[in-house]
Amino acid sequence: MCVALPGKIISIEDNIGQADFGGGVVAVNLGLVRAAVGDYVLVHAGCALEVLRPDLAADLLALFADAAAAAHA
User: Fold this and answer.
1) Domain range summary for the chain, segments of one domain joined by +
2) C-alpha to C-alpha distance for 38 and 8, rounded to whole angstroms
3) Phi, psi of 62 (to 5 degrees)
């Protein structure tokens, strides 16, 4: 099973963005999407696959937070 996670782009240089994943910042290849600083992107294996609508990003972040809370309960 593969999981793609939403991250918020905080900076971009060339085709590499720095994405914030709840406090952890990771370099992400943006070669497949047109993302801007402030956008949420869906990331798998270090590559952004899609720019997310803000409402969808919020829903996904809430879903992952609920799953993490359930795993630690």
Assistant:
1) 5-71
2) 6
3) -65, -40
Per-residue model confidence (pLDDT) at position 1: 64
Q: Which of 39, 65, 34 is nearest to 54 (CA)?
A: 39
CATH of 5-71, one of 3.90.226.10, 3.40.50.300, 2.40.110.10, 2.30.30.140: 2.30.30.140
* Residue 19 identity: A
37 or 1, higher pLDDT = 37
pTM of the predicted model as reported, rounded to 2 decimal places: 0.90
How do residues 27-45 score in pLDDT, each as one tens digit? 999 999 999 999 999 999 9
69 phi/psi in degrees, rounded to 5: -65, -40
